[in-house]
Specification:
Blueprint: H1 7-34, H2 40-52, H3 74-81, H4 86-91, H5 97-107, H6 110-121, E1 127-130, E2 148-152, E3 155-166, E4 173-179, H7 186-189, E5 190-196, E6 202-207, E7 219-230, E8 234-235, H8 241-277, E9 279-280, E10 283-284, H9 289-317, H10 323-353, H11 359-366, H12 376-392
Parallel strand pairs: 1-4
Antiparallel strand pairs: 2-3, 3-7, 4-5, 5-8, 6-7, 9-10
Length: 396
Amino acid sequence: MDFNIPRHVETIAHRVRQFVDDEVIPVETELLRSGVDLNRDILGDLRARAKAARLWAPTMPRKWGGMGLNIQEIVPVFEQAGRSMLGPLAIHCAAPDEGNMHLLHNWANDAQTERYLAPLAKGEAFSAFSMTEPPPGAGSDPRMIQTRAIRDGDDWIINGHKWLTTNGEIADFFIIMARTDPAVHPYQGCTQFLAPRDTPGINILRDVPVMGANDFGGHVEILYENVRLPDSAILGQAGQGFMLAQSRLGPARLTHCMRWTGIAQRALEIAADYAAGREAFGGPLASHQSIQWMLAESEMELKMGRLLVQEAAWRLAQGEQARVETSIAKLQVSEIVGRVLDRCVQICGGTGISRDLPLSGWYEKARAFRIYDGASEVHRMVVARDVIKRYAGEKI
């Protein structure tokens, strides 16, 4: 495995860091100071600056203004974008649009590409992936999906209840996961559908309140009532829903890791700077062993997390599914990020829990990282099953 970063990627990552530091973080600081939420106008201005700097859509082809980077090349780029929560949104590599672009790029037909992917890649549209359901529906166990799509002539009628559909407040279209054949296992009996927002029967009930400050685009609860879609709305083929979902979620887990590593790295820099300048107990905080050890643990864990992400990205680039490796990376990085942020808040003390620094907001938001795109327990289960299969398979 060669984890050397190509020179052109190093250059792009450096430019992204400069852009985030010079253009994005001042906006983040002003929003934090004023208590104003990010809106379309503010984001539109940041995106115009990103396009002018030729730092747009790292994973998308150049014909749509993208950078055309592969899964390995985006690792340092996404981390630098992730130094601010606004960074990925500004350069167009934020969830869920980034994952949905990846999904559509791989599976959309020509008509779907023109209607959905092209405007999404250009930043002219927003999207949402509608899979998670409230109890008793599909959560950590997606096989429990309750949403149904029943064929009616050349159309499909969808009924179901979804929630925590990220971007649902602003999405121009939804990718809906529904059960189309209850007679077979859900892994073979589910299908993904593309549905414009104005399709009759798509009822946005509310934006579900979550930990931390409001997220741009929200996490909505939706009731699908007799949503009629044509056969041409199917992404891929009927029955391929889970296969397509896995092709999306594997890389998406890694991109979450990349972005959150950027946040954790910046938090470490903030904490180290604070500790060097804060006098207490006879000297700078940074001169005390207890603080030094927290900084050292954070540095070491972030390095380990990066290596796990790089390995998983390398395996995906070789054409492997890398399910175990992506599970290990997502599990470890989500928990590392939480520990690093916790230490950084502790080091900064009262300033750390205040809104004068962004640490407390990141700390709140990071808790969800251990749940979305597979809870930590689910990823431990994936790894455990692999261990048992490889080392004790004949005894089970």
